[in-house]
Write a structure and sequence with these properties.
Blueprint lengths: L54 E5 L6 E6 L10 E4 L2 H9 L6 H19 L5 H16 L6 H19 L6 H31 L6 E5 L14 H10 L3 E7 L6 H13 L3 E4 L4 H6 L5 E4 L3 E3 L4 E4 L2 H11 L3 E4 L5 E2 L16 H4 E8 L4 H11 L4 E4 L5 E7 L2 E9 L12 E4 L6 E4 L2 E3 L5
Parallel strand pairs: 4-5, 4-7, 5-6, 7-10, 8-11, 10-17
Antiparallel strand pairs: 1-2, 2-3, 8-9, 9-16, 12-15, 13-14, 14-15, 17-18
Helix pairs in contact: 1-2, 2-3, 2-4, 2-5, 3-4, 4-5, 5-6
């Protein structure tokens, strides 16, 4: 569990030196502008009103019951579905399926999962039994994904608050205690936004004017309750004239960079260019990258950092080309109980994520006859169709139309697959870690 140690900020060096035996690339100013760069164009401010809010507490419009509302990120960017999770299991499924993802968002999601259990699933008036249930709910949601420390941190925050709140008040004040933990969970979402804005302010000055930035996965508003960590720095710096353009790694195998980060940047009007992960070295070699900004799922006491698979490759390339490599994360992502990255549990994902690809879409019936046929086909709960070659399509009704979710295999059947969700970047490859408390050298958190 992340501790409460208060780090003392230091300003890191602006640039990480490349090995002396390597030839240095030309300075960015001596290179032609990067493709898509808007360096010479007048830029309007980022339209942050278009940023998505990822998770919030509300009532389910279908029945008025309390619900944890969240964007289903598995269906972005082409569909904007909102999930209403009214049970602990509902939030747990959203986390495991990556409908809700991103370390800060998972911390908020864990707290809201415990609060929704208290609101909708707890039965009885015995305070001791309620606390036992809170403990069990917190333990269950913390285990939903093993690598992101914010998940267990958020669960522990609300569990500890529930115990302290009831200890400070009469045991028969259970109704007030239940209301208080809902308020606590909602406040965590508000605090997360404030934290992310502070990260953005602390990191923006590290970038040179009109910088071309490269990022990996999604550390934007979708990875937090609102605003973002690595992209929070981009949003802040863009309005200061310090970011001209963003290179977006696609982030295989789930394409969270291509699906989510590119969509966010386009929503707010920041110029960006999507590249395959294996194009990053070529882009850096051209002198088209001035800084790399990534998020984090767990940071060890020595600064070793777990982040989406592929981050380590970028850090190694950044050292080769003399490009500063910045990790952006809230201090709650720092796990002082782990000395180094060898102790971080690395989640292994479903091999189907690597063996094929998913597709989602909507359709409307062209006429009444087709609508009747589709209604009969989908039934009350939708229908899955298994196709030759292992492909699958699930069709369901939604509103006046129909949705489909498909998985298509593009690898040989029964191929062996290794699919870790994260890799660990050693502290010595990280130029600085940017938190809401300041900017730190990796070993001095």
């Amino acid at each position: 569990m992340a501790g409460s140690k208060q780090p003392q900020p230091e300003q890191p060096p602006e640039q990480q030196p490349a090995p002396s035996h390597e030839q240095q690339p030309a300075k960015p100013s001596e290179q032609p502008p990067a493709p898509g760069c808007a360096c010479d164009k007048a830029r309007p401010p980022a339209d942050l009103a278009n940023l998505p809010r990822t998770i919030w507490w509300d009532t389910d419009p279908s029945d008025g019951r309390p619900a944890v509302m969240l964007i289903d990120q598995t269906r972005l960017p082409l569909q904007g579905d909102i999930l209403a999770c009214r049970t602990l299991a509902g939030v747990e499924t959203a986390i495991q399926s990556l409908a809700l993802r991103g370390a800060p968002a998972l911390g908020v999601g864990a707290a809201m999962a415990v609060a929704i259990w208290s609101e909708n699933e707890h039965q009885g008036t015995d305070a001791a039994q309620w606390l036992d249930g809170i403990d069990a709910a917190a333990e269950r949601i913390a285990a939903a994904r093993p690598t992101a420390v914010n998940l267990s941190w958020g669960a522990e925050q609300i569990r500890g608050y529930a115990h302290s709140r009831l200890a400070a008040n009469p045991p028969d004040d259970l109704a007030a205690a239940k209301a208080a933990i809902v308020d606590f969970a909602r406040q965590m979402a508000a605090d997360d936004e404030a934290t992310n804005r502070a990260i953005g302010a602390n990191g923006a000055h590290l970038l040179p004017p009109d910088a071309n930035v490269l990022t990996h996965c999604n550390a934007g508003s979708l990875g937090t309750a609102f605003f973002g960590t690595a992209l929070g720095v981009v949003y802040t710096a863009y309005d200061q004239g310090r970011v001209a353009h963003v290179w977006v790694d696609e982030t295989r195998p789930l394409n969270q960079g291509g699906r989510l980060t590119a969509w966010e940047l386009m929503c707010v009007g920041i110029p960006c260019t999507l590249i395959a992960d294996n194009m990053a070295a070529s882009v850096m070699a051209q002198g088209w990258v001035d800084a790399i900004l990534v998020g984090a799922d767990r940071i060890c006491a020595n600064g070793d950092t777990a982040n989406k698979i592929g981050t380590l490759s970028l850090a190694i390339l950044a050292q080769r080309y003399g490009i500063p490599f910045y990790v952006c994360a809230p201090s709650s992502t720092v796990d002082y109980n782990l000395a180094d990255g060898s102790l971080i549990p690395i989640e292994q994902r479903d091999p189907r994520e690597l063996e094929g690809f998913t597709a989602t879409g909507t359709a409307s019936a062209p006429n009444a006859l087709a609508a009747r046929a589709l209604d009969m086909f989908t039934g009350k709960e939708g229908r899955e169709v298994k196709l030759k070659g292992g492909h699958r399509v699930f069709v369901d009704r939604k509103g006046g139309g129909y949705t489909f979710d498909a998985w298509f295999r593009n690898t040989p059947p029964k191929v062996s697959a290794y699919n870790p969700a994260f890799d660990v970047t050693p502290a010595e490859l990280i130029s600085a870690i940017i938190t809401e408390r300041g900017v730190f050298k990796p070993g001095e958190l």
